[in-house]
Amino acid sequence: MVVRVSVRPSGIVHWLARAVAPAIRDSLIAALSLWLALELRFDLDVPPPFSDRWYWLVPLTAGLLVLVGAVRGIYRTVPEFAGIVELIRLGEAVAAASIGSLLAAKYALPDSHVVPLSVPPIAAMIMF
Questions:
Q1: How far is it, in rounded angstroms, from Cα 18 to Cα 79?
Q2: What pTM value is reported for the model?
Q3: CB contact at 8 A, 30 and 65
Q4: How do the residues of the chain divide into helix, strand and coil, expressed in percent and rounded to 5?
C-alpha cells in the first residue's frame, strides 16, 4: 500500500510566494536597471557627483513600480499565461516609475540634477 502525502503551503506561505516575492523581484529589477542605465550613460565611468546621489532614486522607482503594478493587477496574473493586457499593464507600471524618477531627478535638488535626465528613460527601457 502506497501512501501519498500532499504538502500544501499554508496561507501565509502561499501569499508570500504569490505577492511578496514578485514585488521583491520587481524592486531588484528596478534597482539594477537604474544602476545599469547610469553606467551605460557614462560608459562605465560614472563621475563622483552622480555616483554618490543616485541611490535615493532606487526606493522611489521601485516603490512606484510595485505600487502601480499592484493597482493595475500585474501580480494577480500567472506569468505563463500573460497576454497583451498584462503587457500593457506592465508598460503602465514601468512608465509611472520612469516618470516619477525623472521628475525626482529633475526637481529634487535645487542646484543640480540627481542623475542626468537621460538615465530614467534608459532604465525604463531596461526594465521593460
A1: 11
A2: 0.76
A3: yes
A4: 70, 0, 30
Quote the CA–CA distance of 102 and 123 in Å, as a whole number.
Answer: 10
Distance CA 47, CA 51 (A): 6
> Among 20-24, 26-30, 34-38, 108-112, whose mean pLDDT is lowest?
108-112
Q: What is the pLDDT, as a whole number, of residue 6? A: 53
The set of cell numbers assigned to 1 is 500500500
Euclidean distance between CA atoms 127 and 94, whole angstroms: 7
In degrees to the nearest 10, what's the CA dihedral of 23, 59, 114, 29?
A: -30
Q: Within 10 A of 22 (CB to CB), how many other CB atoms are there?
A: 16
Concatenating the DSSP letter of every residue in 59-121 gives HHHHHHHHHHHHHHTTTSS-GGG--HHHHHHHHHHHHHHHHHHHHHHHHSSSSS-SS-TTHHH
| 30 CB burial (10 A radius; 0-12, 13-18, 19+) | buried
Compute φ and ψ for 39, nearest 5 degrees.
-65, -40
The pLDDT of 72-97, averaged and rounded, is 81
